[in-house]
TrEMBL record:
Residues 12-329 form the Beta-lactamase-related domain. The keyword Lyase does not apply. Residues 349-432 form the DUF7586 domain. Gene3D superfamilies: DD-peptidase/beta-lactamase superfamily (3.40.710.10). This is Class A beta-lactamase-related serine hydrolase. GO terms for molecular function: hydrolase activity.
Length: 451
């Protein structure tokens, strides 16, 4: 649990936001260690003073957070071998006009598809079947060239999931994700108690009821309803508590930035991975997604490194302050910093230990450290430059995991007597002394030596 003073401060912030932004109701929670450690709500389900108060079991429409569930369903299919992210869509859905775009491009909003349907505003009208959506599919940009957010693309991905599983996308999400995770208050349509979707008049304290329909073929883009408690479990999932439903490697793959949200004249702070939004806040990376539908706004944001997360939901079409969710999480982590894990003695084999220490790429000093999981870490001695961890490849060498050397081979080259001559990292030679003349340095070493 968190300190009473921290809980009081977070609750105060939520109350100020609900009142200051004129939100009918506002609910939020903080997740740490896979658990909802703080929750608060302010306001009522219909915005009236005599209405039912919002609580942790109140359903709100999550909007585009739905996309993260569809994305996980796609990645599970990939891990089972039912598809490849590089597959063109036509391999699995041959009846579209966009068959050359890849599944990865659809997941990352890099397929160049239109943002919305061609018909009436889909978020406020009854949705049609797949055949009505497929007739509208079109492009705005060449595939793979830039980020262009596409709700339509996730309608396509929902059909892909359903087609490969032989059922609807929503059944797949319910059976494969919601039920195993105990998210029994997350549904395709609202189930009481739920908030009413409302628009607040910009110049008067009155509200207008927003419509709610089944989105049909567009439902995978923003249909699901959920509670702060259930979305807290989903935040824990995105933070690594996947209950075996997704491997750590696949989750990490989803959270790598693939398409940057480029704003001219400003450093990038947002990107998209495989079905998730990513935020870069001063070097700290966050994953999750925002959501908006008529009458509702929501956000799930999780620190990629620590797994700490925040969930926010309100039943207003607009008004929630930009950065409110991030501010709650920042306030929590500042007040409740994580303690460093205690250092413990590990186990390192003598052969691995013998490789540790200083190595030189040309005249640049690197340090090789042994990690107690049998991995290595190689990086510049001054901390600036290319660094990477390496895991054993099962054949006496290692494979890079990070940055420039991700996927690149690291080999230990030995002399005839078995002593180590040098390290070969993707053709770069690292020697025990700068430009060791006894090692096989590409281009040779000047016979005059250092002078």
């Amino acid at each position: 649990m968190i300190a009473p003073s921290t809980a009081s401060d977070l609750t105060r912030r939520l109350a100020q936001e609900q009142a200051g932004s004129r939100l009918p109701s506002l609910a939020a929670g903080i997740v740490r260690g896979g658990e909802l450690v703080w929750f608060a709500a302010r306001g009522t389900l219909d915005g009236r003073s005599a209405g039912r108060a919002a609580d942790e079991h109140t359903q709100y429409r999550m909007g585009s957070i739905t996309k993260t569930f569809v994305a996980v369903a796609v990645m599970r299919l990939r891990d089972e071998g039912a598809l490849d992210l590089a597959d063109p869509l036509e391999k699995h859905l041959p009846d579209t006009s966009i068959g050359d775009v890849t599944i990865a491009q659809l997941l990352s909003h890099g397929a160049g598809l239109q943002a919305e349907t061609d018909g009436p505003w889909w978020e406020r009208t009854e949705g049609g079947p797949w055949r009505s959506l497929v007739a509208q599919l079109g492009r705005r940009h060449p595939a793979g060239r830039l980020f262009h957010y596409s709700n339509v693309g996730f309608g396509v991905l929902g059909e892909l999931v359903g087609r490969l599983r032989g059922t609807s996308w929503s059944n797949v999400v319910a059976e494969e994700l919601l039920e195993p995770l105990g998210m029994n208050r997350t549904t395709k349509r609202p189930v009481a108690p739920h908030a009413h979707g409302l628009a607040v008049h910009p110049f008067a304290d009155v509200v207008l009821r927003e419509p709610e329909h089944d989105g049909g073929a567009m439902a995978p883009a923003g249909q699901l309803w959920s509670t702060v408690r259930d979305l807290g479990r989903w935040a824990a999932f995105l933070g690594g508590e996947t209950a075996g439903l997704l491997s750590a490697a696949t989750l990490a793959e989803m959270c790598k930035p693939l398409v940057v949200v480029d704003v001219p004249g400003a450093p990038w702070t947002g990107a998209h991975g495989l079905g998730v939004q990513l935020w870069n806040d001063g070097g700290r990376r966050f994953t999750g997604h925002g959501g908006s539908m008529p009458g509702f706004l929501a956000e799930v944001r999780v620190d990629v490194e620590t797994g700490d997360g925040v969930v926010v939901a309100t039943n207003a079409t607009s008004g929630l302050s930009r950065g409110f969710a991030a501010g709650l999480l920042d306030a929590f982590t500042a007040a409740e910093p994580r303690h460093a894990a205690a250092w413990q003695v590990g186990e390192v084999s003598p052969a691995l230990l013998a490789l540790t220490g200083h190595w030189y790429w040309g005249s640049t000093t690197f340090v090789l450290r042994a990690m107690d999981d049998g991995w290595l870490r190689l990086g510049p001695a001054d901390g600036a430059g290319r660094a990477s961890r390496f895991r054993p490849d099962g054949d006496g060498g290692w494979i890079g995991l990070d940055g420039y050397y991700a996927g690149e081979p690291l080999k230990v080259v030995r002399r005839a007597d078995g002593d180590v001559s040098h390290l070969d990292l993707a053709s770069f030679v690292f020697t025990r002394t700068p430009y060791d003349p006894s090692a096989d340095v590409p281009g040779g070493v000047d016979r005059a030596g250092w002078h």
